[in-house]
Amino acid sequence: MSIPELLFSFRGRASRRTFWLWNAFYFLMIITVATLVKNLFPESDSMVLPVILVLLVIPDLAITGKRWHDRGKSLRWLVLHLPLVLTRFMIPVAEAGGNSNPLWCNL
């Protein structure tokens, strides 16, 4: 399977290795970009991370959907993944509200 098929197609299957490698890459990229932007451009950090998340939402859903398919589930099971995706979008918005503490410190 080619990289564009892997990242942008909802057809096919994804092995456990592919799924976990993608998730490791996904979260390392988000953490790295967020750290770099926060250190280099502190005034625009609340705008850059949501853009990165929007760019990565289709590949994330495609690989997750392929993994669900590999487990014998239909793409309808992606509905279970939507709260995670929405939470990722809400974290930069919550931190942009002027709160200097991480979101999990306010629970």
Automatic annotation (TrEMBL):
Keyword tags: Membrane, Transmembrane, Transmembrane helix
Transferase as UniProt keyword: no
Positions of transmembrane segments: 20-41, 47-63, 75-94
UniProt cross-references to InterPro entries, sorted A to Z: DUF805
Pfam families per UniProt: DUF805 (PF05656)
Protein name (record): DUF805 domain-containing protein
Native source species: Vibrio algarum
